[in-house]
Amino acid sequence: MFVYTVTEMLPFLALGALGAATLVAALAALRSSRSAERLGESRLELLRDQHERLELLREERRTLAEELELERRERLEAQRRVERLTREHPHLELERELQRVTEEMELEREGRLHNHRERQRLAEELEEERLAHSEDQREAQREVECLEREVQKLEELWEASETSKKGLWATFFGDGSR
């Protein structure tokens, strides 16, 4: 009697265990998908930040090009003034103008040097972010592979449960010989 009762309950116990296993696998897949979503969102934020920095670099480059053009024009104008003063007053204003032009050129050189250092610093920051981004991509790829393995396991469990259900139904209801 006890064996017969246990035998009758066995299909239901198996279905209950299979349902619990399916629930656990679904919860694991949900947790993994949420993790992948967070990684994707952080990657998107990183890309937005990089885009903004790139736009800033482009703007800075354009500004520097304009400044260089302005400095070139000023230098040419200063040279013309020096030449004119040399012709008009060879001994009076030449030294003063030469000193002023020299000081201006030194300031321009220092400004260009500062701008160059700043561009280098920004380029290094951008490279660091690219490296971090590539690490995030590798991590996201590992997460995707893990999710694919979990989906494959779930599919195998599902197929096994379908097969066991058919066998359990045949055992439970019999093949009509009972």
Explain this structure to me?
The protein has 178 residues and is an all-alpha fold. It has a single domain, classed as Helix Hairpins (Orthogonal Bundle). Helices cover 94% and strands 0% of the residues. The protein has two helices and no strands. Helix 1 runs antiparallel to helix 2. It is rod-shaped and about 130 Å long. The model has no long low-confidence stretch (mean pLDDT 83).
How far apart the termini lie comes to 17 Å
- Judging from the principal axes of the Cα atoms, what is the shape? rod-shaped
The number of helical segments is: 2
CA radius of gyration is: 38 Å
Largest sheet: none
The secondary-structure element order is: HH
What is the overall pLDDT average? Answer: 83
- Do you know the CATH architecture? Orthogonal Bundle
- Strand tally is 0
The number of domains? 1
Q: Give the DSSP E fraction (strand runs of 2 or more residues).
A: under 5%
CATH topology: Helix Hairpins
Describe the oligomeric state of these chains in a short phrase: single chain
Keywords:
mainly alpha, Helix Hairpins, 2 helices, 0% strand
Summarize the structure.
The protein contains 2 helices and no strands. By secondary structure, it is mainly alpha-helical.
SSE order and pairing:
Elements: H1 2-88, H2 94-173
Helix pairs in contact: 1-2
